[in-house]
Amino acid sequence: MRVKICGIMSDAAAQTAVQHGADALGFVFAKSKREISIESAKQIIEKLPKDLLKAGVFVNPSKEWIEEVVSTAGINIVQLHGEETPEFCASISYPVIKAFSIESASDLEKIHEYPCEYVLLDGPKGKKYHGGNGISFDWNLLSDFDFKDKKVILAGGLTEANVSEAITEAAPFMVDVSSGVETEGQKDLAKIKAFLSCVKGARL
């Protein structure tokens, strides 16, 4: 099972995640308690494996902002976490992860309108931020839905304690964690190791 650790803000968190089997890291370029500057992200990304997925997380961005971040920081996949339209998604010349907040089965219906390889299914939006709120949704909603050729990234309230159950119920392509590997709002290296060990199991 693939794992994405999102909201990376330090070398220590990035290196710990990679060393313990993370397949993707997320860097937030939007208003968030985990927002990172282009320069800080670039300094972290320069030390990472070239083939690692480095996602830039955006909320209702301009194409110019995406271009600036991609060309400077070195990310290689764009995560759209706002109310971006299918047309905007199609206009991005990089691989795209489109995030959706899931509260009911009807929220899944719009997924196929978006021309992207990956869809990220997150819990309900918080009052202040679009994602990273540590709130899960009913994974049973996914059991009868046909995602066709889209790769599902499961997010929202995942922790070491519930991720195995989430994988069993939702059978995603990848799981994504942010607040679930934090202590007092900061990435906790021990929690990152424990989460990855739980998901990766005997492979480590």
TrEMBL record:
Pathway: Amino-acid biosynthesis; L-tryptophan biosynthesis; L-tryptophan from chorismate: step 3/5
Domain N-(5'phosphoribosyl) anthranilate isomerase (PRAI): 3-196
Keywords: Amino-acid biosynthesis, Aromatic amino acid biosynthesis, Isomerase, Tryptophan biosynthesis
Transmembrane intervals: none
Catalysed reactions, as listed in the record: N-(5-phospho-beta-D-ribosyl)anthranilate = 1-(2-carboxyphenylamino)-1-deoxy-D-ribulose 5-phosphate
Enzyme class, broadest EC rank: isomerase
Superkingdom, taxonomy of origin: Bacteria
Family named by the database record: Belongs to the TrpF family.
The protein's name in its UniProt record: N-(5'-phosphoribosyl)anthranilate isomerase
Taxon lineage: Bacteria, Bacillati, Bacillota, Bacilli, Bacillales
Gene designation per UniProt: trpF
